[in-house]
């Protein structure tokens, strides 16, 4: 019977781009079929359709009598060996590890695997089997890829440009092996090549042009029909023919093949007797998948370093970059009451300021007010005039300036009997005693200086009240503020820390998942693994297990960082906190899995991860309350994977809330929802399209 039959194959990528146009192709069992054509004529597309990686728009493909499509790939993947145009190998594995990996996913006997690996390495002159693939030359990589296609001794070998980059002696050696194999073991070979001369050694040649086979026959018959002595001249003449639809295509099935021990393959039962039935979730297969991923990770020190340092650097930068009070801010001072600041300095160092205890009369109070402005908060820069201070602020030399009127002490003395009416800061500014001009372009610093100046005046005012033997509580507002929950030493860190933890843990899961899965799909090893019969369920099971290990590692790192960098007592259950941390990582892994399965572009994948990170960071309520958002944005924020977990983490750490509080159990339910939804969608996507 015929090994492969293609009938009426049509494949269009758009209305103008017809890759395959009603193509018919026949490959006999135990023969070598050379497919020749210019780049872009559809050779690789045809091979991917034969393998079930690509779906025809019309037509049928049969392998050993069984129809093949994306939905119905080959029933017997162990019969097929495939070498793609790109090497599609794991760069971090050695030659020996690569062959061992493919042998194990093909579920080969270990003794046979070692024998076959040695034979193929000798054949292809792969001498240093302990060398990593990424250290090999281009030609050596193609030889390893060829070896991986032959390791399980397949009966159907599909080779896409296998001899590119190889020297003529090695090409001759490979062709000799293929010819001998077709005769001795009835192996069938379909090969695409740019070397037209070497195609003369095949049993049948097919020339493709514009998605069609313009001829399909043995090299000898082509020579006779066109009156030429070599294929190169024959194909040159054929390509010049104006009538491309001319009937020049006798079937290769009419060619008599001299075969040894031809095995008639007619139905499933006979095929099952030829190969071992593949086992799902087979131990050696899962072990090979796991070992491949672990070797890749182990031999990428940059990735390991990044995985470890990402949370460390993020948290350290947050601790030292946020929450601290601004120091050393330059503040301009124009004191019209005491123009010579040396007088203020001498006056402050005297035994006491001049106070008439009977009349409660003061002198040079501006000196004492300025003394309350601490140098660590604001560095005072003195100017002689308002204009000079204004120019300094405009030039960026100060963050603003304040002016003190010449009658500062006099006004206070005049109002000494009405303290209860003048203790508010605004009463003094109404009298133009102090005027403040701040640079509002930096809101945080402006607000900080504003608060510090008010606090300084409150301290000054209380001193004056006490020195006049008055109750300094006259300065207080008639309101008492009590704290329900303890305040941390730094309010900004207390507010932002849970949001940071949520973001970074989610990002760690996303990045690790993207790195692992996208790399496999882009390199092509994903497709080769599936073509070997490994199911997407097996791949996902191993990937999720490895990501779970990474997620647990990230949580442990975070717990250690929290203990080392934050001297904060956790009021709630530490284990509950760890559960939310772990769920954040797993949710990130599932999001990364979803993104990786829907694009093979690293730039798009990384952009998607960045988008998730900054969207969650800006809207999670960790750095600015969600109550400050428009109403419609609050609904969006509420369903983000970091918003409720941020509140839950903060409430566990500071308030000691348990799982009965809605922010805590809400965080757990939300993260479980993300995990289930993104994992389910990813599985459904793989069922619909499992190849990259």
TrEMBL record:
Coiled coil feature spans: none
Listed GO CC annotations: membrane
One Pfam family named in its UniProt record: ABC2_membrane_3
Entry-linked Gene3D superfamilies: P-loop containing nucleotide triphosphate hydrolases
Keywords: ATP-binding, Membrane, Nucleotide-binding, Transmembrane, Transmembrane helix
ABC transporter domain sequence ranges: 4-235
One Gene Ontology molecular-function label: ABC-type transporter activity
Localisation per UniProt entry: Membrane
Annotated transmembrane regions: 304-322, 493-513, 525-546, 575-597, 603-626, 664-686
Topology with respect to the bilayer: Multi-pass membrane protein
Record-given protein name: ABC transporter domain-containing protein
């Amino acid at each position: 019977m015929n090994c492969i039959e293609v009938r009426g194959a049509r494949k269009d990528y758009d209305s103008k781009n017809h890759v395959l146009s009603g193509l018919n192709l026949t490959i006999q069992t135990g023969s070598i079929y050379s497919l020749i054509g210019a780049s872009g004529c559809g050779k690789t597309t045809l091979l991917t359709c034969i393998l079930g990686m690509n779906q025809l728009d019309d037509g049928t493909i049969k392998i050993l009598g069984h129809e093949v499509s994306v939905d119905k790939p080959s029933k017997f993947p162990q019969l097929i060996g495939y070498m793609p145009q790109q090497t599609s190998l794991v760069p971090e594995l050695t030659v020996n590890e690569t062959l061992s990996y493919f042998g194990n996913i093909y579920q080969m006997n270990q003794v046979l695997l070692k024998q076959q690996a040695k034979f193929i390495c000798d054949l292809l002159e792969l001498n240093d089997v302990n060398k990593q693939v990424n250290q090999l030359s281009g030609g050596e990589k193609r030889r390893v890829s060829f070896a991986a296609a032959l390791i399980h001794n397949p009966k159907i070998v599909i080779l896409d440009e296998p001899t590119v980059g190889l020297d003529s002696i090695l090409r001759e050696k490979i062709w000799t092996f293929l010819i001998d194999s077709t005769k001795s073991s009835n192996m069938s070979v379909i090969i695409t090549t740019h070397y037209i001369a070497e195609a003369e050694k095949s049993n049948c040649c097919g020339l493709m042009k514009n998605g069609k086979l313009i001829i399909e026959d043995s090299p000898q018959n082509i020579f006779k029909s066109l009156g030429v002595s070599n294929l190169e001249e024959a194909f040159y003449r054929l390509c010049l023919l104006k009538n491309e639809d001319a009937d020049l295509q006798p079937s290769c099935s009419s060619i008599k093949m001299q075969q040894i021990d031809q095995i008639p393959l007619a139905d499933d039962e006979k095929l099952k007797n030829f190969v071992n039935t593949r086992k799902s979730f087979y131990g050696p297969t899962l072990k090979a998948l796991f070992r491949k991923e672990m070797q890749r990770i182990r031999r990428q020190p940059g990735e390991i370093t990044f995985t470890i340092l990402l949370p460390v650097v993020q948290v350290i930068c947050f601790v030292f970059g946020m929450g601290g009070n601004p120091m050393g801010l330059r503040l301009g001072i124009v004191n019209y009451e005491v123009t010579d600041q040396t007088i203020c300095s001498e006056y402050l160092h005297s035994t006491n300021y001049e106070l008439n205890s009977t009349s409660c009369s003061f002198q040079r109070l501006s000196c004492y007010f300025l003394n309350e402005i601490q140098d660590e908060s604001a560095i005072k820069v003195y100017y002689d005039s308002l204009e000079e201070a204004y120019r300094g602020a405009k030039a960026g030399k100060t963050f603003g300036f304040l002016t003190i009127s010449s009658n500062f002490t006099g006004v206070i003395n005049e109002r000494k009997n009405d303290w209860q009416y003048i203790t508010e800061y605004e009463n003094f500014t109404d009298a133009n005693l102090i005027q403040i001009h701040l640079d509002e372009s930096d809101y945080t610093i402006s607000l900080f200086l504003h608060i510090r100046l008010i606090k300084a005046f409150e301290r000054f005012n209380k001193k004056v009240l006490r020195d006049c033997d008055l109750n300094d509580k006259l300065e207080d507002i008639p309101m008492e503020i009590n704290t329900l929950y303890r305040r941390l030493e730094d309010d900004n860190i207390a507010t932002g820390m849970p949001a940071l933890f949520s973001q970074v843990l989610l990002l760690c899961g996303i990045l690790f998942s993207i790195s692992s899965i996208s790399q496999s799909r882009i390199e092509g090893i994903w497709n080769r693994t599936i073509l070997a019969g490994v199911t997407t369920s097996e791949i996902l099971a191993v990937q999720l297990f490895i990501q779970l290990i990474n997620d647990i590692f990230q949580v442990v790192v975070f717990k250690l960082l929290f203990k080392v960098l934050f001297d904060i007592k956790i009021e709630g259950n530490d284990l509950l906190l760890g559960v939310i941390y772990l769920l954040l990582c797993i949710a990130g892994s599932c999001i990364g899995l979803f993104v990786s399965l829907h694009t093979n572009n690293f730039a798009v994948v990384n952009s998607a991860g960045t988008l998730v990170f900054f969207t969650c960071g800006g809207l999670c309520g960790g750095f600015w309350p969600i109550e400050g958002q428009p109403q419609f944005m609050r609904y969006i924020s509420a369903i983000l994977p970091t918003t409720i977990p941020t509140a839950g983490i903060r409430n566990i750490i500071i308030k000691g809330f348990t799982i009965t509080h809605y922010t805590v159990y809400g965080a757990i339910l939300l993260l479980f929802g993300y995990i289930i939804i993104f994992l389910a969608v990813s599985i459904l996507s793989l069922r619909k399209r499992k190849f990259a």
